[in-house]
Amino acid sequence: MQSRIINNKKIYAFKDKSEFLKYIDNQKKILIAMNAEKILKKDIQLQNIINKNIGYPDGIGAVMALKQKGIDAIKIPGSELWLNIIEIYQEKKSFYLIGSTQEVIENTIQKLKTEYPKLNILGYRNGFIDEKEKEILKQTLQILNPDIIYIAQGTPRQEFLMDELIQVHPALYMGLGGSFDIYGGNKRRAPKVFLKLNLEWLYRLLKEPTRFARQLILIKFLILLKLKKL
Same structural domain for residues 183 and 201? Predict the structure, then answer.
């Protein structure tokens, strides 16, 4: 396991997924999926959270940047990783899930219980949390004491929430963005041909043209990478 600083953000690289899964065993930190957008994002609070936790290459941009720094990194999709963690620890550790709408989180829980009947889910809730509910959530986590907590809200909101929660309840946290929506069937992940060609971003753009402004960031990232300014 190695790491490099890319645009002032620390990103870890692993030779394969099994090395990553072994590394995070018994960790009480936040797993943060790093892609081109997050690498370029100018947010000191988010940057500090990334640097004191475990940022991993979730996007092809992060992989390319690490390779330019001399590391033969692999892409580790967070949309798959959270289920890999469940497969390994379903009988050993306890889980708590937060995120998306009430309908999506309930569909996610129902599907998880069907596919992983031995999974120890201590609780769950949707991702719409005001300050009063946040205090209740903190108390709930302290009482239930889950080992692994998944939060699907989108960046940087999920990272800010995880950083706040880990202060009162140390555990392994992982930000999942829209993974519950995909797992619960509300959204489709890119077909395998797009994934194989590292064109998942293109599939998302074709499905959601409103993402065009966000994809311009990828072009900026590739230019900076080519100029070796990352």
Answer: no
